[in-house]
Amino acid sequence: MLRERKVLVLAPHTDDGELGCGATIARAQDEGATVFYAAFSTAEESVPEGFPRNQLEKEVRKATRILKIKPDNLLIYKYEVRKLNYVRQEILEELIKIRERINPDLVFLPSLRDIHQDHQVIAAEGLRAFKNSSLLGYELIWNNRTFDTDCFIMVQPKHVALKIKALQAYVTQQGKGFMEPAFIEAMARVRGTQIGVEYAEAFEVIRWII
């Protein structure tokens, strides 16, 4: 499914893409896909005390390197955290530029049922911008009141391990329950159990083009 495809991951904030589909990114790399990652906020206003304001930019660069995303395929924007709705037209225009440059086959973006305001903007504008691409919504269960598990992507233990390693690059985010290796592994195991395999990630099908 992922072999030799152009895959784009849309992350409202640094770490959302890894949390939502990090193991799938690792599988896509194994299968020869070209993976692009766009992060729209480095949340400089929310960086913990004692770290430089650009700390999350440093962390996303390290995390995506772990997932073998080429530096040239990482796009970082610095919109203000929790205020993406103020610049949604500007974000749409940037997404259209990405579409024209990449023309991705498959786009991963937040679920349309994600309740976080920044995630809602990226989901809605991504849906508008990528009308000719397949779209899969990833789950961040702490932000999803409901989530339709329409699609399951099987992953191997090594892919889950890489996801965990990438998330550990976010030193500013450690201590949060959803960043814990045990939680990441358990979620992958739950989704795998639902389809009779060891590990998987689940997605909401927004648009599937065959």
Helix content range: 25-40%
Query: Could you give the distance between the termini?
Result: 11 Å
**Strand element count:** 7
Give the strand order of the largest sheet, numbering strands 1, 2, ... along the chain.
3-2-1-4-5-7-6
Morphology: globular
CATH fold topology: Rossmann fold
Domain count: the total is 1
Structural write-up:
The chain has 210 residues and is of the alpha/beta class. The chain has a single domain, classed as LmbE-like (Rossmann fold, 3-Layer(aba) Sandwich), CATH 3.40.50.10320. Helices cover 39% and strands 20% of the residues. The protein has 6 helices and 7 strands; from the N terminus they run E-H-E-H-E-H-E-H-E-E-H-H-E. Strands 3-2-1-4-5-7-6 form a 7-stranded mixed sheet, sandwiched between helices. The N and C termini lie close together (11 Å). The model has no long low-confidence stretch (mean pLDDT 97).
Characterize this entry briefly.
With 210 residues, the chain is of the alpha/beta class.
Keywords:
210 residues, alpha/beta, Rossmann fold, seven-stranded mixed β-sheet, 6 helices, 39% helix
Topology:
Elements: E1 6-13, H1 16-30, E2 34-41, H2 55-66, E3 74-76, H3 88-102, E4 106-110, H4 117-129, E5 134-138, E6 151-155, H5 157-168, H6 181-194, E7 199-207
Parallel strand pairs: 1-2, 1-4, 2-3, 4-5
Antiparallel strand pairs: 5-7, 6-7
Helix pairs in contact: 1-5, 2-5, 3-4, 5-6
